[in-house]
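Hi R.,

As promised on Friday, here is the backbone we talked about, encoded as structure tokens. Could you run it through your design pipeline when you get a chance and send me back a sequence?
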């Protein structure tokens, strides 16, 4: 392993020396244009390259490399001074010049010590001499870092982009040397590993200087994400914790004795237990996030992350089977790290707010009226978020006494009230529980919570509209049932009224009495079928499709209208179709009744059926008033739209629905003033289809 570190030392220092000399040569033509800063950098690079070469030649602890290291420190201190005093880069540089001179003096004190002990091997150096040299190097590193920090902090904003990279290079060099000499001071020897890695640090320093010269004036800002910063800080704290444990345990081991070992074991066990308790702590994580946001970022919130989390929570309805109201509470609670929340909503426009939903807060006791009407009016007028801690302490915005009820003031776990507004109407109020870390709401909290509350209010208002629409649709379904019933009952009532009027004239005729019994029986059957259909309405149960004689059905309809209007059936053949007999009869009665209503008393209605391929085409033709194309397209088959006075607009709609349910369809041709033709296509029965194929073999081919 020692050979590896020795090889790394040689290669690292040679590469670093080559890089330093190359950068110095590249900077030579720019000397006059940089007003004195570049000569200092060039000189420092040359001295550092000479030191690196001497380390490879005679070893890092020999007098020559140690002397060159002191000269390189002095050169870099001069570079630091020249960088930050060029022009008006730093205001008030005068008081810092004595500090710089003191650091240079301390570094120069090491040269006599190196000269005095030049012939003594490092391993045989007196402890006092080694500790003195190391302590002075520590003083120089600490002082240089403090000076660098103060000078860079006082730099004007316009010079940040120019000085950032040289300052980073110098800080890297002195920070590494600070750690190196600290370990060497404690161990009273230079660790081989850290000495070897010093060559890599020199190379990184050269690279930073080169990068700064190549990209002078260009903005390069490190912008770590919040999650990366949080994880990095967590790892740093964990690492610091273990280092502290190691240091204390090591210090206890120097005491010696059984008691020291016992104390050491107890300390390690206690520290481990404390770590196990603290690391999963929600309070600790919350404190870390708040600390990071306050000190490392311009804004408390990463708005892109907050928006993505908001859409993820609201958009996924399957999360823990939570309702939209529960997810609305969660989105606001996630912003402030609250562990729970409740939603209060309105039951009516004249009442206060009641409990609507809970999120992880089942033990909160809420009265029947959670927020009074005074609170509702206040939120509708003010559109403000109430921080209850400020109200309880009498600080912040003045809130009327009747706005916040007593039960909320007494419940200390309720932390904030956030109103949800939609078009200046209060949809509800979300009450958030207290977060694990005590904090106050600031302007950034208010802005983000207000924006999110507006969005949530729109979602909740849309859901309420959907609920109201669903309820209206259920009422519409009920009203549609009643409308269908009234339509069919109206037809039956008209038929029975006609029967009663005719009975006054022809009651003594046996033929009439026979027809009357048939009519009454048919009316009873239709009422029973109407009740059965009403029970099945909306269940989407398909009626039984059977083989039906269309000719017999048409003759029944003709006889039904015999005493009302002349119906002429053009008989061709006895066609059979696949249909529900009752539904088909009712559909045809609706359409024939419409044709009769549209025709003059002396104008007959024609029924014509013929075969059309594998369908039966049934036409209902009248010479009545006719219909416009616009009426057929937009209103004919729409429910509750009728051109007849007192009509329900149900007949044509119901006829089309029932015929389509049987596998048929309806088309219409009409001219205003000439009449209408309803064409009904019904599937041909299988037996009838076979006979048609036998009678027309050429059509099949």
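Update: got your reply. Pasting your designed sequence below so it's all in one thread:
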């Amino acid at each position: 392993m020692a050979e590896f570190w020795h090889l790394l030392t040689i290669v690292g220092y040679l590469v670093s020396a080559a890089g330093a000399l190359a950068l110095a040569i590249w900077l030579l033509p720019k000397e006059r244009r940089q007003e004195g800063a570049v000569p200092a950098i060039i000189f420092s690079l040359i001295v550092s390259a000479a030191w690196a070469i001497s380390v490879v030649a005679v070893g890092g602890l020999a007098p020559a490399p140690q002397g060159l290291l002191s000269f390189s420190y002095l050169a870099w201190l001069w570079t630091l001074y020249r960088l930050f005093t060029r022009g008006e880069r730093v205001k008030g540089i005068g008081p810092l010049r004595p500090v710089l001179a003191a650091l240079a003096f301390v570094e120069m004190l090491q040269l006599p010590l190196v000269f005095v002990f030049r012939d003594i091997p490092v391993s045989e150096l007196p402890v006092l001499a080694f500790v003195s040299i190391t302590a002075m190097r520590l003083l120089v590193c600490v002082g240089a870092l403090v000076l660098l920090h103060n000078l860079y902090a006082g730099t004007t904003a316009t010079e940040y982009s120019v000085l950032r990279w040289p300052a980073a290079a110098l800080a890297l060099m002195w920070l590494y040397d600070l750690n190196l000499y600290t370990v060497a001071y404690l161990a009273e020897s230079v660790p081989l590993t850290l000495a070897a890695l010093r060559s890599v640090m020199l190379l990184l320093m050269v690279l930073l200087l080169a990068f700064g010269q190549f990209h002078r004036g260009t903005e390069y800002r490190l912008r770590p994400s919040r999650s990366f910063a949080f994880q990095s800080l967590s790892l740093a704290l964990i690492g610091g914790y273990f280092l502290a444990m190691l240091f204390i345990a090591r210090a206890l081991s120097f005491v010696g004795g059984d008691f020291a070992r016992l104390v050491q074991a107890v300390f390690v066990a206690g520290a481990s237990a404390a770590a196990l308790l603290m690391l999963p702590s929600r309070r600790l994580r919350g404190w870390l996030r708040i600390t990071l946001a306050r000190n490392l970022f311009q804004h408390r919130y990463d708005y892109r992350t907050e928006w993505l989390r908001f859409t993820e929570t609201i958009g996924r309805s399957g999360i823990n089977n939570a309702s939209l109201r529960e997810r609305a509470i969660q989105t606001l609670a996630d912003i402030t790290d609250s562990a729970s929340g409740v939603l209060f909503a309105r039951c009516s426009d004249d009442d206060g707010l009641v409990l609507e939903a809970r999120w992880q807060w089942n033990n909160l006791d809420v009265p029947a009226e959670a927020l009074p009407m005074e609170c509702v009016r206040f939120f509708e007028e003010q559109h403000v978020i109430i921080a209850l801690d400020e109200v309880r302490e009498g600080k912040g915005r003045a809130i009327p006494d009747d706005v916040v009820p007593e039960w909320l003031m007494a419940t200390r776990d309720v932390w904030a009230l956030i109103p949800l507004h939609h078009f200046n109407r209060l949809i509800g109020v979300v009450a958030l529980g207290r977060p694990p870390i005590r904090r106050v709401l600031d302007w950034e909290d208010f802005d983000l919570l207000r924006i999110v509350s507006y969005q949530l209010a729109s979602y909740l208002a849309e859901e309420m509209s959907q609920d109201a629409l669903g309820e209206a649709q259920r009422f519409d379904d009920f009203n549609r049932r009643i409308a269908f019933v009234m339509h069919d009952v109206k037809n039956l009532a008209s038929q029975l009224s006609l029967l009663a009027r005719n009975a006054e004239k022809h009651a003594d005729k046996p033929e009439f009495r026979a027809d009357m019994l048939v009519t009454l029986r048919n009316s009873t059957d239709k009422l029973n079928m109407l009740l059965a259909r009403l029970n099945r309405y909306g269940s989407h149960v398909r009626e039984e499709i059977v083989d039906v004689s269309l000719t017999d059905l048409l003759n029944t309809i003709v006889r039904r209208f015999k005493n009302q209007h002349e119906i002429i059936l053009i008989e061709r053949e006895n066609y059979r179709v696949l249909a529900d007999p009752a539904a088909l009869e009712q559909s045809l009665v609706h359409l024939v009744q419409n044709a009769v209503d549209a025709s003059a008393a002396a104008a007959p209605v024609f029924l014509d059926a013929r075969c059309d391929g594998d369908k039966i085409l049934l036409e209902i033709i009248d010479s009545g008033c006719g219909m416009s194309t616009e009426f057929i397209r937009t209103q004919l088959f729409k429910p509750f739209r009728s051109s007849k006075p007192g009509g329900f607009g149900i007949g044509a709609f119901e006829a089309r629905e029932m015929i389509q349910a049987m596998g048929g369809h309806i088309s219409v041709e009409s001219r205003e003033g000439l009449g209408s033709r309803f064409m009904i296509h019904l599937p041909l029965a299988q037996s009838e289809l076979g006979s048609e194929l036998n009678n027309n073999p050429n059509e099949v081919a």
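One thing I noticed while checking it: The chain has four domains: 2-221, 238-296, 303-470, 542-700.

Thanks again,
M.
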